[in-house]
Write a structure and sequence with these properties.
Layout lengths: L1 H8 L6 E5 L2 H9 L2 H4 L4 E5 L10 H11 L4 E5 L13 H6 L4 E3 L5 H8 L4 E8 L4 H13 L5 E8 L1 H11 L4 E4 L1 H7 L5 H7 L3 E3 L4 H13 L6 E3 L11 H10 E8 L3 E10 L25 H5 L23 H4 L4 H7 L6
Parallel strand pairs: 1-2, 1-7, 3-4, 3-5, 5-6, 7-8, 8-9
Antiparallel strand pairs: 6-11, 10-11
Length: 345
């Protein structure tokens, strides 16, 4: 690792701005103090790769409304419960009498649906290519077992279109590509973007040493359209074909709204017509209004602002009193900046 740090610190080329996209990379970078190891000429910014963080408030508001129906239970992972909608969070709705339940796996819905056949269980299906295969597995199990009280409210997004959006802004010189997503999609999915924009992509794991190696790779190939796979133990060029087929069976591409960005054509996944009976009303969830208008979560997600640039960071907004999704999620930039060294790192 010492040699990698030395190579980065001795970099004497033009300034480079590198973006990590995956929320797990964001966490590892913060926990390993990687930004503090870089020279001023290498700037590392976070991108829109935290699934909870990029979910718009209209989606959260719909979940909250569903939780207030007497026959409906909203089921979610824990990190979504405290994310503010336009007025309140799911946790707030639950405290006020809404029916909200946390689980550790979407497959838990199978048990819940069997135990209470008179209730409709709506899973908050957020995520990227990584989690979409799990939702496909859930739907196929529900069909096999003839469970008619399972629904998904989908806010599923795909990586290449949003990375393309970032590339078109012309503010990033290379990408630490998302490792978990690449396991499913394969590393070759980034090759068209690398070639079109002449930018390097490094697919990497999550250890500090691996991330440093990826940053060295990106600096080395600055200005070149290359995709380098530094995670060959689990990532192949073609990806997981079985998982891809499962997603294609249940979902089709659609336009999707991203917090702070707006609608990106073809960047989402919606249920195919054959599976629409499982949909809980996912269409038209495009509006995004921060409960606290001073929150700068959107700019942080786009790499325009470090967490410390938000006027709320560390004062009004902390992990105990989050004002935006970036401070709630354990993959959020603000959350890790607060816990691991301040908003400027």
């Amino acid at each position: 690792m010492t040699g990698l740090v030395r190579a980065l610190r001795e970099y004497d080329g033009p300034p480079v701005r590198l973006m990590e996209v995956c929320g797990t990379h964001t966490a590892s970078i913060a926990q390993n103090g990687i930004r503090s190891l870089l020279p001023p000429s290498i700037q590392l910014v976070s991108g829109p790769g935290c699934p909870v963080c990029v979910t718009v408030t209209a989606y959260l508001d719909r979940l909250i409304a569903l939780s207030r129906r007497p026959d409906t239970v909203v089921v979610s992972f824990g990190d979504l419960l405290r994310v503010p909608g336009s007025r309140e969070s799911l946790a707030g709705a639950k405290a006020a009498g809404g029916q909200v339940q946390m689980v550790y796996s979407p497959m838990d819905l199978l048990r819940l649906a069997k135990e209470k056949p008179g209730r409709i269980f709506v899973f908050a299906a957020v995520g990227f290519e990584t989690t979409a295969p799990v939702y496909a597995m859930l739907l196929n199990r529900a069909k096999e077992e003839k469970l008619e009280n399972i629904r998904l409210l989908t806010s599923l997004k795909t990586m290449p279109p949003v990375i393309d959006w970032v590339c078109r802004q012309g503010t990033v010189d290379g990408f630490l590509a998302p490792g978990h997503v690449s396991v499913v999609t394969g590393s070759r999915i980034f090759e068209p973007l690398a070639a079109q924009y002449r930018l390097p992509f490094a697919v990497a794991g999550f250890s500090g040493e691996t991330i440093l190696a990826a940053l060295c790779t990106l600096v080395k190939y600055r200005g070149q359209g290359r995709v380098v796979n530094l995670y060959p133990s689990v990532v192949t060029g073609e990806g997981n074909r079985r998982a891809q087929a499962a997603v294609e069976e249940c979902f089709v591409p659609c336009d999707a709204a991203w917090r702070g960005i707006g609608v990106i054509t073809g960047s989402g996944l919606q249920l195919r017509e054959e599976y629409r009976a499982f949909d809980a009303g996912s269409d038209g969830l495009l509006e995004d209004r921060e409960a606290n208008p001073a929150c700068r979560c959107a700019q942080v997600l786009m790499g325009e602002l470090l967490p410390g640039g938000c006027p709320l960071f560390g004062a009004v907004c902390t992990p105990n009193t989050p004002q935006g999704a970036c401070m709630v999620s354990t993959e959020g930039s603000c959350y890790h900046a607060f816990l691991n060294g301040g908003g400027s790192q």
